[in-house]
Amino acid sequence: MRLMKKYLFLILMLSGLTAYCQKADEATAINFATTLLTPGSHKLEILEKNIPADLRQIITTYRKAVQDSLQWYNTYSQQHKNETPLPYHNNFGITEVEYNRMNKEFPLLKMKVKTTKEFVVNNTNDQIALKGDDDFTLLDAITIDTKNKTLVIGGEQIPYTGEVNENEESGVGTWKGYNWKLEVGSMDDVKAFKPVDYTMIDLTLGKTTDNKAVL
């Protein structure tokens, strides 16, 4: 959202970003959201990593190898859970040189616009509600309760986690914002292939140093 306040950015791939949370109360975060999500029609640019073709092939091969050996991968991940990135292994399906390149270059890639959608912001009865076009309903579940200073998604109040700061490596430039996150269930149980219900909702609303909004 340049100074015309009509663009928001939905980042679909956040792997490798250097976000960290600081102390900032939720009332401040909700007030910030109110200044960004002004009533009326907005355009939203959905972004994705701008991946070179040869690097994309490396990533595709790696992901397929991991998917084909998922049980092994989960065990291997647990064995090296304190190491980032994981030590190279032949089961990754790519060479060690390719693996190192992927881990080095992918987090630094800039974002590009994948598609543009339109949505409307309504502010009534102390609530901010988002409404997308008929073929774009991703944001429809989001409601900001400006009276009680809370974020609600799909009728569920999402816990506030704090302020987020991103550096230039984020793909859209340096920016700061606020984060809400809800996790129901255990990811460890999911990785262990246990029959459990698991839900993760993670939303960050922020603004870059050149006044582009980030959602």
Order of helices and strands: EEHEHHHEEEEEEEHEE
Helix content: 10-25%
Largest sheet: 12 strands, mixed
Which outline best applies?
globular
Mean pLDDT: 80
Q: Give the amount of beta strand, in percent.
A: 35-45%
Distance between the termini: 11 Å
**Estimated radius of gyration:** 19 Å
Derived from helix and strand composition plus strand pairing, the structural class reads alpha+beta
Continuous helix count = 5
| Order of strands in the sheet with most strands | 2-9-10-11-12-1-3-4-5-6-7-8
In total, how many beta strands? 12
Low-confidence stretches: 1-22
Descriptive account of the structure:
The chain is α+β, with helices and mostly antiparallel strands and 215 residues long. Helix content is 24%, strand content 36%. The chain contains five helices and twelve strands. Strands 2-9-10-11-12-1-3-4-5-6-7-8 form a twelve-stranded mixed sheet, covered by helices on one side. A hairpin with a 4-residue loop joins β6 and β7. α2 crosses α4 (96-105). It is globular. Residues 1-22 have low confidence and may be disordered.
